[in-house]
Structures are given as C-alpha cells and as structure tokens.
User: Fold this.
Amino acid sequence: MWSCFLAITCPLAKEFAMHRPLFRLSVLALALGVCGSAMAATHGEVAAREMRHVATAFKGRMAGTETEQATAAYLAKAFKKMGYQVGEQPFTSSFEYEKADKSKVKREVKSINVIATKPGMDGKVVIVGAHFDSRTPKKDSDIGKIGGPKLEGLDDNASGVGMLLEIADQLKKTKTQHTIKFVAFGAEELGLLGSKDYVARMSDSDKQNVIAMVNMDSLITGDKMYFHAGKETVAKDAKAGFVRDRALAIAKKLGIAADTNPGLDKEYPKGTGCCSDQESFDEAGMPVLAVEATNWEIGDKDGYEQTTNKAIKDGMSWHRPDVDNVKNLETIFPQRVEQRSRDFSRILTPLVIELAGGKAK
Ligand SMILES: [Zn+2]
Assistant:
C-alpha cells in the first residue's frame, strides 16, 4: 500500500518541481528521498530476482566445491554493496558417505559461512539465516539422481537465500537498537554443518544475547507458508514460541494465509519445525523461527511431502535436478516466485525490525 501510494505521488512531485522553479530544489530533493525509500520498500523484488539468479548462475553449489565458494563470494559482494560489514568464516568438517557396497566412509569437507553485520546500540543480537549450498550426493546410489552438479535448487534453498538478501536490502537504511547478523550457511545439506560451526564458535554470553534466530529454507514448492518454533526450546519454556506467534499475527493482520505445524505426527510437536539450520540454535537454547513452505497435512504428516500438485511426482521437489529448477517450478507454479517473495517479505521485514528494536517505515 505504502509503495503504491508513493509510486503515484513520486512522478507528481517531480512534475510539480519542474513547473515551480522557486520550489524546485527542495521539492525535488524531497521527492527523490521519498521515492528512494519507496524503491527499497517494494516487497519481494530483490528476493525474486536473487533466488532465480542464485539457482541458475550457481547450480550444483555443493559443499566443498568451487561453485559453493563462488556463491559465497557472490553473497559477500551483495551484502557489501548494501553497506554491511561482511565476514567470511571458513570451516572444515566431515560427513558419512555410503559406497555402493553399503560400506561407509568419512569424507572431509571444507565449506564457509558468510556473515553480514548491522551493528546495533547494545549487545543483543538477532540472527537471520539461510543455507546457500545445494544437495551433495551422500551415497553412490544418489549419483545422477539426487543432488549433484546439475541441481539448481530453486526451492532448496536459493529461495531462502533470495529472502535473506531481500530482508538485508529492506533493512539497509533502518536503524535498530540491537545488532542484526545475516548469515548464509554452507554445508547444511551434509548435516547442518555451517550452523553447527557457527554455534560452536559462540560463547555462553553470545548465546544469551541472541533474541532470536530466524531461518528460511524451501519457500516455493510447498502448498502453504509456515512459521514454526524450535522443538527443544519450547519444550523447556513455551515462551520461546514468541517469534512464531508474532510472525503468524503479522500474517493475519496483512490477510496472508500462513500456518504452523498442526502436530499430526507426534515426532514433530504442534507449532514446532524441523530439519534445517535453526535446529543448531534451538539445541543450544536460543529461541528460533523456522520459515518454510510445505504441507504438514499430507503424506506422513512430517512436512516432507510438500504439495498435492500432481505435476510434482510424489509431491516432493527435494534434491531432484529435473524437478527443483527455475524452468520446471515456474511452469508448474506460475507467479509463485513473485507471490512468495512478496508475502514472506511483507511478514518477515517488519518482524525482523520489531525483533531488532527498530522502527518500521
Ligand atoms: Zn534446505
């Protein structure tokens, strides 16, 4: 609404300035200033553009590969362009690989996290994250089918990375009381390795200073938009679900359909999510928000089956190069990239500003 109003008034203001020489300078300055902020406020533009770009320009961004490193360099550059302080944190870890004869070997992997910081005025921190790696085959039998160099991973997880850049762009000129850290995690697909490394480097006081960690993973294929809390933190204290409750309240106010896990599978309690980088923070006692799109009411009701759309075999696009790519998903779901980019941004931008103690425009 705000940006529509400005889209109409900005050309009028410029027109006015051209015909009233006395006021030209001041009105033009005002118009440019207001129009500049209107451009930043058009929700979803950056997310849609960046998710398509990351998916297609960096396909096969498997942990430990040159493509993963190139993606990290691209993201670091993008954050720097927005004016953020950027740190790159390389790490070495390992994962278990299953060979054709079913024997298992440990494989070393070198990956990297990219961290953009918006300094606040006190020690409190809000972390916003998304993994940028795409699936690495974890078994000989995966090769050619699951993950690999041809996987674009628009849904998992160029979509989350696009939203990460979107929120960073929306907030680049907003002053906040608390620090915000935008983190692009490497090697999530090999066992949350990037987020585990990030949490391992935190001191106890670092952890206590975290207001919340917001994680975005797989925002396109799923039938519905979801917001969940962390299983471990809410089991100890229901109040840790406050970020989920705020996200759902903002969505409701905006008239955007959004839900949380209904808890139809006892393994995944109502209102909590699973299976992405927020778990590393949840397990270390920090309040989290898991942002995703899927469908928790179908299949095994564990959130793994994403859609009832018959054009997606078995209702899942996960890690399949022939399914999770821009051309295919945009053919099956026309306008979905725009809709999700806009709607998630409309909810998450004010939410992150609120968490960080800033003022929404
Ligand atoms: Zn993912």
